[in-house]
Every structure is written in structure tokens, then in C-alpha cells.
Design a protein that fits this description.
Elements lengths: L4 H16 L17 H4 L6 H9 L6 H18 L5 H27 L1 E2 L4 E2 L13 H12 L2 H5 L2 H16 L4 H9 L1
Antiparallel strand pairs: 1-2
Helix pairs in contact: 1-3, 1-5, 4-5, 6-8
């Protein structure tokens, strides 16, 4: 039997995503008895239980397939439901929180040496020269990007991607209180 460490990581990732779905909006397939016109609008239904089944049957060959199904859950919900509904707001929240969890998991997988295309460990883990994040450098980069003419000429999707990358970097910065507390121990 061949081990698939990516499967283990994806199972943990799915658990984390489901924890964010406190109202269980995305836990099970949409009940077509309650919402008979759902399939008129949604051609590829997706939910967390279907993702779990696919994961258990090793149907995710790579990280991107898993991420695609997560994005499909959010897209379907936002497509079918009106913007002023509880479900639509739940999808927005899931998109933001789940997206951050997925980006962090992708970075972690790359750091430990997963090949995200094959789902197995690389023979040699990637080497990173400097894992320390310079808070001042991140702040300067973000300010420069926000105030640049280059940003204004980029498509909104690319602007969002760059801002999310910068946001992800700031998550790993130890801020004042954490540094002081750590120094005193």
C-alpha cells in the first residue's frame, strides 16, 4: 500500500473548514425536496459531506482539486441565494475564513515538502534561507503597493491576490505584546 500524506493533510484541512461552518449550511447536499429548483441554477452541487466521501475514496489527486471543490461550495451558494440572505452571508464568511485556511495550508504543505500535484513528499524538502518575517519590510511593501500607480493598472483579481499574499505574511508577524511576553519567559 502506498501512503498518501496529502490525504492526511486534506482530511485535517476539511475538518478545519467544517469547524467554520457553525450553522452547518454546507455540511450536506441541498435537499431537493425543500429546494426543487436548485438544479435549474446549479449544475455541479458540492458540500462538505461529498468532499469527505471523495477524500475517503482518494478522488483528490492534488491540492487544487480539493480547493476547487471548496470554491464550488461557496460559488454555488452565492449563485443560488440572494445577497440579503443568511446563506449568502454565510458563503461570504466561509469564502473569507476558508480561503485563509486553505492559503495557510498550501504554504505549510510547500514548507514541509509536499508535492501539491502528486500528493506525496518531495525527496528533498525545500530549503528556505530566511523564515523570519521582517515586519518593517512587510509594512513598507504593503504601503508601497497600496500607493502605487502599478496597483491601479492591475485587474481587481490580481490586486486582491497580491493583498491576500501580503495579509498572509502579516499573520506570521509577532506583534508587540507577543514579543514582550516571549522575551520575559
Amino acid at each position: 500500500m502506498r501512503l498518501h500524506p496529502l490525504q492526511i493533510m486534506l482530511a485535517e484541512l476539511l475538518d478545519q473548514l467544517q469547524e467554520k461552518d457553525t450553522a452547518n449550511i454546507f455540511a450536506e447536499p441541498v435537499d431537493l425536496n425543500e429546494v426543487p429548483d436548485y438544479l435549474d441554477f446549479i449544475t455541479h452541487p458540492m458540500d462538505f459531506s461529498t468532499m469527505r466521501r471523495k477524500l475517503n475514496h482518494h478522488e483528490y489527486g492534488n491540492f487544487s482539486d480539493f480547493e476547487g471543490d471548496f470554491n464550488l461550495i461557496v460559488k454555488n451558494c452565492m449563485t443560488y441565494n440572494a445577497k440579503d440572505t443568511f446563506y449568502y452571508r454565510g458563503a461570504l464568511k466561509m469564502r473569507d475564513q476558508g480561503g485563509a485556511i486553505i492559503r495557510q495550508a498550501r504554504r505549510h504543505a510547500e514548507l514541509v515538502g509536499y508535492d501539491l500535484n502528486t500528493g506525496i513528499h518531495l525527496k528533498v524538502a525545500p530549503q528556505y534561507v530566511n523564515d523570519v518575517i521582517d515586519e518593517d519590510k512587510v509594512t513598507e511593501d504593503m504601503d508601497a503597493f497600496l500607493n502605487s500607480e502599478e496597483r491601479e493598472s492591475l485587474p481587481l483579481e490580481e490586486q486582491l491576490q497580491r493583498l491576500l499574499e501580503m495579509l498572509d505574511k502579516t499573520v506570521n508577524i509577532k506583534h508587540g505584546g507577543a514579543r514582550t511576553k516571549q522575551a520575559s519567559t
